[in-house]
Design goal:
6-stranded mixed sheet, 23% helix, 26% strand
Length: 197
């Protein structure tokens, strides 16, 4: 089986059951049966991966970014939404807690990005929450998940944008420029969507 990372990359590592991915253990998933077989309702619906990420800043405005162990480049905290009824905000909070031991208490939906399916990439929907500025005491307690994250850093936004991978870079740039929710497709604004009619 495969996993989709927070910036839309397909990851196959054979550790699905250990990672608790839906369907890996034969448990019931969205419209699935206990044995993992899809019902007719599930076969009629498109399977669209959904993930959620967090913008977390320190008091000076530097962005928390993470260096994944399973791909090149940098990303932000976040990951795939579970198929057990988890909401995007719940997924964001869980992934941040798992990846860096931060317990998020608030967030504002800053961007929603639809990524088209391509060969080797399932596409999907990405939610991005602006979780604001957190105190030094919280950031001092960051503990990364070593199986997935090799290091973290706080970087000024311009520097962070230069380090982030393309899709997530476009999403973060659009979200930090706007003071309202932005709708994106492949990380880019869509003409006529979101502007006052």
């Amino acid at each position: 089986m495969a996993a989709v990372t927070s910036d839309g990359d397909l990851r196959t590592d054979g550790a699905d059951a250990a990672a608790g991915l839906p369907g890996a253990s034969g448990r019931s998933g969205l419209f699935g049966t206990e044995a993992g077989a899809a019902t007719p309702e599930a076969e009629a619906l498109p399977a669209i991966p959904v993930s959620a990420g967090a913008l977390i800043f320190d008091r000076t405005g530097r962005l928390l970014i993470l260096k994944p162990t399973y791909k090149t480049g940098w990303t932000i905290p976040g990951g795939v939404m579970e198929a057990d009824g988890e909401t995007p905000w719940e997924a964001c909070r869980r992934e941040v807690r798992e990846e860096c031991a931060i317990e998020l208490r608030r967030g504002r939906l800053a961007a929603m990005d639809f990524r088209r399916q391509r060969p080797g990439n399932p596409g999907g929907i990405r939610f991005l929450f602006d979780c604001g500025r957190v105190g030094d005491e919280i950031l001092a307690g960051v503990v990364v998940q070593p199986e997935e994250i090799s290091e973290y850093r706080l970087a000024p936004l311009r520097e962070a944008l230069g380090l982030l991978r393309g899709p997530i870079r476009r999403r973060v740039r659009a979200a930090t420029r706007a003071k309202r929710l932005v709708y994106l497709e492949d990380g880019r604004p869509v003409p006529g969507v979101g502007a006052a009619a």
